[in-house]
């Protein structure tokens, strides 16, 4: 009976995660509808970004300077030029803003970018799977139901301005979709010889033109 009462009291928190726009440069939109009213609490979504996708820390700094988004990226130093097979996972803590249309709804968006992948065989696309984020609440009061919200496994930063650890709470949630998938165009491995030959030919031609121009118009003492 106690278990049934707890399940009835703990309404599901619903998470919707969408990748907007097309191509290599997208916007990650996260929307959360809490299972209970949590007035006065900070709400965040913590998600792990696989190596095939990243947030540009320089772009994130600019957006935060203009108060367009609030997030903490771990690690905060990223090689934005690295291909997917030389990159590693990132941890993104995205602080959500209240949605004026719904008292228990929060949302936020952040630009994300796909990395280049190795050429594939028999397909022109690589799939990057983005799992549903963990929903976190940080409250200055104790109004949260202990049956519904438990301490988060890892202390997260208090805010994008204060990176000191705060005690956050997490709950099980019901994702609208279990995962999001980003389809990244890749080259075909069977075209490797042709691409290498054309690249070598183009490089040699351009080098020859530069050398000819230097000999014709250059002044050598």
From TrEMBL:
Instruction: Tell me the keywords, alphabetical order.
Output: Endoplasmic reticulum, Glycoprotein, GPI-anchor biosynthesis, Membrane, Transmembrane, Transmembrane helix
Do the record's keywords include Endoplasmic reticulum?
Answer: yes
What biological-process terms (Gene Ontology) are attached?
GPI anchor biosynthetic process
Q: Which GO terms describe its cellular component?
A: endoplasmic reticulum membrane
Q: In which pathway does it act?
A: Glycolipid biosynthesis; glycosylphosphatidylinositol-anchor biosynthesis
Q: How does it sit in the membrane?
A: Single-pass membrane protein
Provide the protein's localization: Endoplasmic reticulum membrane
Major subcellular location class = endoplasmic reticulum
One family from Pfam that matches here is PIG-X
PANTHER family for the chain: PHOSPHATIDYLINOSITOL-GLYCAN BIOSYNTHESIS CLASS X PROTEIN
| Family the UniProt entry places it in | Belongs to the PIGX family.
User: Briefly, what is this protein's role?
Assistant: Stabilizing subunit of the glycosylphosphatidylinositol-mannosyltransferase I complex which catalyzes the transfer of the first mannose, via an alpha-1,4 bond from a dolichol-phosphate-mannose (Dol-P-Man) to the glucosaminyl acyl phosphatidylinositol (GlcN-(acyl)PI) intermediate to generate alpha-D-Man-(1->4)-alpha-D-GlcN-(1->6)-(1-radyl,2-acyl-sn-glycero-3-phospho)-2-acyl-inositol and participates in the sixth step of the glycosylphosphatidylinositol-anchor biosynthesis. Probably acts by stabilizing the mannosyltransferase PIGM.
Protein name, UniProt field: Phosphatidylinositol-glycan biosynthesis class X protein
Species, as recorded: Pardalotus punctatus
Upper classification of the organism:
Eukaryota, Metazoa, Chordata, Craniata, Vertebrata
